[in-house]
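Today's session is about reading a structure prediction critically. Students often jump straight to the picture, but the first step is always the sequence itself: look for stretches that repeat, for charged clusters, for runs of hydrophobic residues. Only then move on to the predicted structure, which in these notes is written as discrete structure tokens rather than atom positions. Here is the chain we will use throughout the hour.
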Amino acid sequence: MAHGALFMLGAYIYWILTASEFHGVPLEPIQLHPGLAIIIAVILTAIAGMIIYKLTISPVIEDLIAVLVVTVGVVIILQETLIIEFSSKRWPVVSFTKGFTTFLGVKVTYSELLAFAVSLCLFTVLWIFITKSKIGSTMRAVAQDREVAMLMGINTDRLYTLTMAMSASIAAVAGVLITASTSGFAYPHMWDTPLYMSFAIVILGGLGSIKGTFIGAFIIGFVEMAFIFIMSALGISGAEFLKGVVAVTVMVLVLLIRPKGLFGKRVEMED
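Below is the predicted structure for this chain, in token form.
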């Protein structure tokens, strides 16, 4: 549940490092190059992810409900901290590139193309790492059965810390690229949309399936855009503000009809 918070944290760190001015905030502009700023944002967010794991998740790792509760608490604490420090304003985020092009009659900005290209690269690297590397195989083993993995001598706590650092890094990259290419603003409530979108995509694709996540993301994106197009064609305004409902609806339907998702495996609850 803290994934959205890490998404937001990465965007805020990037904004602080690249902003040219801070209205009403006692900070001196650093104005780093966007490329260097995103690297620093990824590193700092990864460190924050490891700290969150050590302080909040590791002590209650045996209880999944407790993990959900404490990570929700992390989101609220981080959100309120950002509001106290930077108010609830929408702070403009520096874009990597400017301009746009047209593809099949559709206007696409260069920032969106960059975000798309980086996402594909990250997906490819992550898939190779998880499926081909020794550490990736260890991660899959722990995901399948943590107790057996511990009996085989795997240091699960160290592995969970590494996993949290990786997921936090990817969340930071997403936070920077998506914010810079879409809304263009960092604000304290920006974590909720990527959180429920992530849940919808993963549940649709299937828990633990990278291929399913990739395909599920395209399906959710296509369904949302189709919904906006149909509503606009019918003369119904404000459809873009309701597109999030589509993702949640798809998630609920999948849970009712096919709980394991498109490519996931059914997980049996232990007594």
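Discussion point for the tutorial: Residues 267-271 have pLDDT under 50 and may be disordered.
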